[in-house]
Amino acid sequence: MTQHMKRALVTGGAKGIGRGLVERLAQEGWEVAAMDRDAGALQGLPQGARAIEGDVSDEASVRAAIAATGWDGLDLLVNNAGLASPEAGPIEDLALADWQKWIGTNLTGAFLMTKHCVPLLRARRGAIVNITSSRAHQSEPQTEPYAAAKGGLTALTHALAISLGPEIRVNAIAPGWIVTTGWDELREIDHAQHPAGRAGRPEDVAEAVLWLAGAGFMTGESILLDGGMTRKMIYAE
């Protein structure tokens, strides 16, 4: 029996956490499609990875991007694409169009990708990993659309797990402070506030994604990956 090469589709794969995921999966021998609306940033992907231009918030674009893979099966879908900045300004000044932009990319995008990848995932009894955020569980001021989108994605995760199981497992990772650039610019206090002793790196998220891709008894869960930061009580001194 010939064993097929594992296939993964990573949205938002051009930069940051997504780029780290693409590089690690390719390193582990996966065939990877890195999907991003920024075609220019998809240059220089590692061997085993290919660029797919597409906008997760647009259904026609999603259909075209998935068709462009030419795949008849999928082992892993990582819904990582999203607007990275959480700051939206005062709620009374927030335009509906801006609210919809956050929701459209960070939440609706995962819905559309999942909807159109389900047949491919079923063909290989694959897995979905949604990248949410610790901001689904705690907030800073003026981050309502980002928090709402990530909270919605957390709920979508367990809803999909129930609907799609047992053929497809669905889990989420909620990263905390993941440093994608400027690691050497961090202060000692930036690391020390994490019980793990440091801020996070894209490699930390990649490790968790790889584990969830093969964790056959794990579904419907959201893993907080924040170095313990949300578990630490903070009192004014």
Automatic annotation (TrEMBL):
Transmembrane segments: none
Listed GO MF terms: glucose 1-dehydrogenase [NAD(P)+] activity
Assigned keywords, A-Z: Oxidoreductase
Domain of life, per lineage: Bacteria
Oxidoreductase recorded as keyword: yes
EC number: 1.1.1.47
Entries under InterPro entries matching the protein: NAD(P)-bd_dom_sf, Sc_DH/Rdtase_CS, SDR_fam
Protein family per UniProt: Belongs to the short-chain dehydrogenases/reductases (SDR) family.
Protein name, entry field: Glucose 1-dehydrogenase 2
Organism annotation: Limimaricola soesokkakensis
Taxonomic lineage from the root: Bacteria, Pseudomonadati, Pseudomonadota, Alphaproteobacteria, Rhodobacterales
